[in-house]
Specification:
This protein is an alpha/beta fold. It has one domain (about 5-245): NAD(P)-binding Rossmann-like Domain (Rossmann fold). The protein has 9 helices and 7 strands, in the order E-H-E-H-E-H-E-H-E-H-H-E-H-H-H-E. The chain has helices at about 15-25, 35-50, 65-75, 100-125, 145-150, 155-175, 195, 205, 220-230; strands at about 5, 30-35, 55-60, 85, 135-140, 180-185, 240-245. The chain has a 7-stranded parallel β-sheet, sandwiched between helices. Helix 1 crosses helix 9 (about 220-230). The longest helix is centred in the middle third of the chain and has 26 residues, at about 100-125. The chain is globular. The termini are far apart.
Length: about 250
Amino acid sequence: MDKLCVITGGGRGIGAATALLAAQRGWAVAVNYTANSLAADEVVRAIRQGGGRAMAVQADVSDAAQVRAMFEQIDARLGRPDALVNNAGVIDVPARVDEMDAARLTRMFAINVTGSFLCAGEAVRRMSTRHGGSGGAIVNVGSAAARIGSPGQYVDYAAAKAAIDTFTLGLAKEVVAEGIRVNAVRPGIIDTDIHASGGQPGRAQQMAPQLPMGRAGTAHEVAEAILWLLSDAAGYTTGSLLDVAGGR
């Protein structure tokens, strides 16, 4: 039986690229989405056409009841997961800290931080040898923004992703003896539609000349790093923060 990977925010961008690559590498994939069912269904359709196993499953990762229900659906249809990619995340329009309101901050941390904790908790309860599981791997998708700070743009997003760094380090130590490896990738400027959701659809192209490599990264390049961290090739790697940022 093929191993099972749950990917949050798996319908678009880095999540979709990871889902497609995982399927090519022999993983069954649960593609989580919040609202865009058409995008998630398209990823699932592509995986199935290639002979893989996949399902789309709706859940707002910031809602504990929805996260619990999502994992129960996955259990029933595909089995217990062997891996989790905490990819779901949001940005907002560029703003200074003195222009941000509480509603923006609540949304930013609920999805980017609380959501990762909730999904990891469900995954650990299924994968940990302490809970009768056979081990597994978790990859959190952080951001190079965590070490840059994103002044005048997204200090709130950078702070949320810095929390993911610390979460990764702590959880890795907490569950390493229970057969679970926990790592993070920290993408830099990647050419996906997340920039459009922050009101800057051309941001990746605009910033390309300023980047050490002279170009933005691709979702596939980040997916390759994620799949390596999930694989047995990374069997002695846990608690690592892997930058995929083109030298930025």
